[in-house]
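To: structure subgroup
Subject: Chain for Friday's discussion

All,

I'm putting the inputs and outputs inline so they're searchable in the archive.
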Amino acid sequence: MTCVIIGSGGHAKVVLAALRAGGSDDRIELRDGNPERAGLIVAGLKVRVPDLPEGSMTGCRVHVAIGHNATRLALLDQALTSGAEPLSVLHPRSHVDPSASIGPGSLCAALAIVGPDAAIGRAAIVNHAAVVDHDCRIGDGVHIAPGAVLGGGVRVGNTVLIGANATILPGLEIGDNAVIGAGAIVTKSVSANQTWIGTQPVQGRS
């Protein structure tokens, strides 16, 4: 089966590394929507354009390897509408508890941990060494950056960015489209569209 990776930047390299570490024998095709990327060699693969092949994608598995949350989620939905199957990628050095669930098209990078009864949504990224503890609920199109730690029972809305090495205390809620800065310590729930830097929220985004 053909595996189509959409995106050819740094995050695509992370996805490819996870696939190869897991011993995938799929034929891998790397695609990008930027014509200037056509023909570049990324991690040993030639980049093709456009990002979505014309016509039916039936018989293909697809993973969108783009950092921008809303774009990643939208491209996954477009690919599925074209008949593709979503591909979730779990690095063999990640740990996902058997009782946890990983949504379609999501990634668990090396050393990521997803605890008991946690649930990860569609097109989400649990990046290197991030921890999603027991009973967390993570929405669609979320990026949990390297080293971030979510305590038990945290609920995260859709298209949220949680920065590298951030800590979210147990039981809190993070609203849709919120941004948690790198290294932040979140001690209160965060509203939709709000940004939290360091130990406090800043003005919400429209």
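Points worth raising on Friday:
The first strand starts at residue 2 and ends at 6.
The two ends are 43 Å apart (CA to CA).

D.
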